[in-house]
Design brief:
The chain is built from 9 helices and 5 strands, in the order αααααααααβββββ.
Length: about 350
């Protein structure tokens, strides 16, 4: 491996010079080039934007995904660029338990059928919640996080580079002051300097002034680049405002859908409890209502067939179903999807009128 010794020595010298300059500034023995007030205001705005955007993203994600373990899992999958496995919401787990309990008590009983009905609606709420979380992330948290990972990182990188150029500039200013002091030229600094390596003081001053001009040019150029990036924060604010409005619309739509779902559920339960001539503890025979004819049903949740006699289901698809035989089965119906036929779980279906 080839090493550029001169470059290594030069870089090491520059690093040491920056450390010395920073130390002297901390001790108050060296002056520091100050940026103009407009630049400082721009930087304060950018720094506040970064801090508050990070806090908003954290708090929004905590609202959308309250479980910190799930948030960490999502973060890890995002960093390794791998699709995370699908995760049911708590409402969907509750719905599954209600459906299972309803089947255990008996879907032909009033209590069992009510449990199954509420469980199906809880699953709807859970699916609606998952859709909301995905939409909210897409329209709000993801754009804000992208801003932090791209624009803000670029601004921080250029600002750090500007600070490096500023230290180099002030170090060059100090060398010029010392060279002028050695020659006895007028300067408002009293910094002693001795001739180095036999080089005439005039040449030392001339080289120091050349270095100063180069450092000043690089500093001015970097300051202009950083300033342009900082001024762009205003357009980022406008973009974030649009994201915020879209997030509010998504949230309003989510709560409206939840209200509709629960209103429908209340109506369904009221109709079940007000059926004339029905004993709450007596079984309900669906055959009397269905007359064992093929009817349409919507699948509430994915279902994997347990054996060859069953048929796998996908959420939201429409299939044709009827009773398995002359005697109603509490757990299963007969289903058809095109040329596919088999048993399907009754609790995973919502009948379409």
């Amino acid at each position: 491996m080839d090493f550029n010794v001169k470059k290594i020595v030069k870089d090491a010298g520059a690093a040491i010079s920056r450390v010395v300059q920073m130390t002297e500034e901390k001790l108050g023995t060296s002056e520091k080039t100050e940026l103009d007030a407009h630049f400082e205001n721009l930087w304060d705005r950018a720094d506040n934007t970064r801090n508050w955007t990070e806090k908003l993203v954290r708090n929004t994600e905590a609202v959308l995904i309250p479980n910190p373990g799930n948030r960490i899992e999502d973060f890890i999958y995002e960093k390794i660029d791998k699709k995370r496995p699908s995760r049911l919401s708590n409402l969907e787990y509750l719905g599954l338990d209600m459906i299972e309990a309803g089947n255990m008590f008996g879907p032909g009983t009033a209590y069992g059928s009510s449990l199954i009905k509420v469980g199906q609606w809880e699953q709807k709420l859970g699916q609606n919640e998952r859709d909301f979380i995905g939409s909210a992330a897409m329209c709000f948290t993801q754009p804000l996080r992208k801003f932090l990972d791209t624009e803000m990182k670029t601004i921080l990188k250029e600002k750090n580079l500007l600070e490096t150029k500023r230290l180099d500039l002030d170090a060059c200013k100090n060398r010029v002051r010392k060279a002028r002091s050695m020659l006895g030229q007028p300067t408002h600094f009293a910094l002693p300097m001795t001739q180095k390596d036999g080089i005439p003081p005039e040449e030392v001053l001339e080289q120091a002034e050349r270095d100063l001009r180069i450092a000043q040019s690089e500093f001015d150029r970097q300051a202009e680049i950083t300033k342009l990036l900082l001024e762009g924060i205003g357009s980022s604010h406008a973009a974030h405002q649009r994201c915020l409005l879209e997030f509010v619309e998504t949230q309003a739509r989510f709560y409206s859908q939840c209200t509709t779902i629960m209103t429908d559920l209340q109506r369904e339960l009221a109709s079940m409890s007000s059926m004339p001539g029905v004993d709450p503890n007596s079984p309900i025979n669906p055959k009397n209502e269905w007359n064992n004819e093929m009817r349409k049903a919507r699948v509430i949740y994915d279902y994997d067939a347990q054996d060859t006699t069953e048929m796998s289901l996908m959420a939201n698809e429409i299939i044709m179903v009827k009773e398995l035989g002359d005697k109603p089965n509490e757990d299963y119906l007969y289903g058809e999807r095109g040329h596919q036929k088999g048993k399907v779980p009754r609790a995973f279906l919502e009948f379409i009128s």
